[in-house]
Specification:
Elements lengths: L1 E10 L7 H12 L6 E4 L4 E5 L1 H17 L4 E10 L7 H12 L3
Antiparallel strand pairs: 1-3, 1-4, 2-3
Family: Belongs to the UPF0045 family.
InterPro entries: MTH1187/YkoF-like, Thiamine_BP, UPF0045_domain
Length: 103
């Protein structure tokens, strides 16, 4: 299972605010037929699932700002694809918290 961090930034919108674009992009995740799990953070969105499914969803997410009038879109994708053992968003956080003594 892959864990992917994605940030989609609309450019050329005439405003510094992007929260409406983020909400519109997030609707794609909420309505995705692919079996992905996701978590919105203050700076990005984290998605876990099969990498092919995640990339299909990200392609649709990338198009949303264009559909909403953005003239340019910058999408940053970071992939953690661990294949030696199962991985999840929760497991990664739990592992660090255990090492901090916050178990």
């Amino acid at each position: 299972m892959a864990i992917v961090e994605v940030t989609i930034t609309p450019l050329g919108t005439g405003t510094p605010s992007v929260s409406q674009y983020v909400a519109d992009v997030h609707k794609v995740l909420e309505e995705a037929p692919e079996p992905v799990h996701f978590q919105l953070t203050a700076m990005s969105t984290i998605i876990e699932g099969d990498l092919k499914d995640i990339m299909a969803v990200i392609m649709r997410m990338h198009e949303v700002p264009f559909d909403k009038g953005a003239l340019r879109v910058s999408t940053l994708i970071r992939i953690d694809d661990r294949r030696d053992k199962p991985a999840s968003i929760e497991q990664k956080v739990k592992s660090v918290n255990e090492k901090l003594g916050h178990a």
